[in-house]
Amino acid sequence: MAALVGGGLGAFALTPAGAGAAAPVTTSVATAVVTKAAAASCATGKYQKQVEGYLKKLGGYGTLTVDGKQSAADCAAIVKFQKRFGIQPAKGLAGPTTYDVAKRLASTKTSACKAKKKGITFCVDLKNQTTYVMKNGKVHVKPTITRTGMKGYRTPAGTFKINKRTKKEWSDPYEVWLPYWQRFIGGRGFHQTTTYIHDMWRGSHGCVNLLPQDAKKYWSLGKIGSTVKVYGRRPGT
């Protein structure tokens, strides 16, 4: 029986003594070895099937099979999703945080923002704790996660305009820097989160917290006078 030596697609087969030169392993065999090893390293989470379904609905994370069974392809898709939304650890386990984030994103209806037909509209869905950008009435930046005001500091619903922008704003009350600051009402605005965004119990003091890459993207699109539409209500506030 030939034995496999080496790893990945570079593996080759040793032939029995006297059988002649070594024969290369076919790509399909080598790939099967890699796939099996990858699948073995990924645990199946409590919310495996639900997460598979939500990620398939969202699209863009790879090929998933909605069967509740972890595979190498499923794991890769979940890891990609976790890295995109800053979920730690990003190891492919479909746990409660991954489930919650996927569900919120899949539940967001962009038409609910009622964005204006011309120009940029920043939309904030308080109920699902998501945010996205519309341009000329169409989705320009897909929904991403946010964290808005906690109980006692509720982020108000309504239509507003960005009225101040600074790449790094200092918050006097809370003594913390607010990167990519875009204020739209009172002391509330968009900014990069300074803590782990998935600690939802923290909430904000009324601001719309964003992941670093989203804060930068919003900054690149915003300007003084840009429209911000905040709708719904955060549960528990």
From TrEMBL:
Keywords on record: Cell shape, Cell wall biogenesis/degradation, Peptidoglycan synthesis, Signal, Transferase
Q: Which residues form the L,D-TPase catalytic domain?
A: 120-231
The leader peptide range reads 1-21
| Any Gene Ontology CC annotation | extracellular region
Q: Does the keyword Lipid metabolism apply?
A: no
InterPro entries in UniProt: LD-transpeptidase, LD_TPept_cat_dom, PGBD-like_sf, PGBDSf, Transpep_catalytic_dom
Q: Which GO terms describe its biological process?
A: cell wall organization; peptidoglycan-protein cross-linking; regulation of cell shape
Q: In which pathway does it act?
A: Cell wall biogenesis; peptidoglycan biosynthesis
Q: Which residues form the active site?
A: H198, C207
**Molecular function (Gene Ontology), one example:** transferase activity
**What PANTHER family does the entry give?**
EXPORTED PROTEIN, L,D-TRANSPEPTIDASE
The molecule here is called: L,D-TPase catalytic domain-containing protein
Tell me what organism the protein belongs to: Actinoplanes missouriensis (strain ATCC 14538 / DSM 43046 / CBS 188.64 / JCM 3121 / NBRC 102363 / NCIMB 12654 / NRRL B-3342 / UNCC 431)
